[in-house]
Write a structure and sequence with these properties.
Strand content: 25-35%
Strand order of the largest sheet: 2-3-1-6
Structural class: alpha+beta
Helix content: 10-25%
Distance between the termini: 76 Å
Number of helices: 2
Mean pLDDT: 86
Largest sheet: 4 strands, antiparallel
Order of helices and strands: EHEEHEEE
């Protein structure tokens, strides 16, 4: 007889959490233009992202599907969506981009997550009109 079991086998429960890898990643980014100059509209902002990818990763990088889900021209902030396998390519391309219309610029990646909801709100950065 086994201790505490009086001959009965103890049931072993195995807990498994099956998690599929996230299909997309989301990035909250801000474009900084220290020298001033024209502020890009939504279409120009998207083109700047594609240009950054092309400059670092060539035509293959430029073909990476990136969606601009939100863009706020006032703060030059955006939420981007990219397939998870392209996250490092996008992040590195944005980090290394240095110019917009011959003026210095810098992309800041403020937050990244496989969950869009995680990026949706930060009350401390709310801009009220």
């Amino acid at each position: 007889a086994r201790p505490g079991g009086a001959g009965m086998a103890t049931a072993a429960f195995e807990r498994r959490v099956l998690r599929r890898a996230a299909e997309h990643h989301y990035l909250r980014v801000r474009l900084e233009l220290p020298d001033g100059g024209a502020r890009p509209n939504a279409a120009q902002f998207k083109q700047l992202v594609v240009t950054a990818l092309r400059e670092l990763h060539g035509e293959v990088g430029a073909a990476l599907p990136v969606d601009v889900l939100t863009y706020e021209e006032k703060t030059l902030s955006a939420i981007l969506r990219v397939i998870s396998s392209g996250l490092v390519k996008l992040w590195s391309a944005l980090t290394l981009l240095g110019f917009y219309q011959n003026k210095r610029c810098a992309f800041r990646v403020l937050q990244t997550s496989p969950f869009l909801l995680a990026l949706s709100g930060n009350s401390r950065e709310l801009v009220l009109d």
